[in-house]
Amino acid sequence: MNLEGVNMITCGNGNCYVIRGRSGDMLIDTGTEDYRDEIETWLQYYNVKLIFLTHGHNDHIGNAAYFSKLFGADIVMSSLDLALSRHNLMHRIYPVGIRGKVILSASQKLMGQSTESFAVNIFPEDGVALGEKYGIECKAVKLDGHTKGSFGIMQGRDLYVGDALMNFVYPSSSLICESPKAARESLYKIAALSPERIFFGHGKPIETGSRAYEKLLNI
Question: Which of 38, 43, 88, 199 is the most buried (most CB within 10 A)?
């Protein structure tokens, strides 16, 4: 797969990304505290001004407070996931299939842990541009289902989906969801957007024309 222009930081089974801007960069998700040093080493090459959290689960927000203070960066996250970010197990989570049951079981310990609290400076809106102040050209895309406040980022024809989609073994809609119905609707929304490349919070990216892409979006 052609990853030209993509700034992807893999930490364990999760991914963080950086979108470059003309006068500042956006970090998408922050990984867990276990990978803080590794992620920070990568981020020394960037000028992080915004931190976009796709949703409130600990494996995506674990370093949000730390990196926000370190870089003086504003945090962007949906208001619908604010309470969830402080207590990941406050909502019932439904597994989808055998893979979902495995992921949910493996996630319970991390979700039960507490993370350093942080203030959210910007609440995204569906289809609205973000980061214009720093010359970052992208827009927020609401992709609820995994959580009520799940959002992705569209940059050109690239779509960063957080956990709205997952690539465990093979790409699919979210395998653990607050609402499997909403997660399926988000999959249809993504198909309508027709991104050229899809970047997951977990798993390898895929691109248009590949068998995995076509199977995922039923092309």
Answer: 199
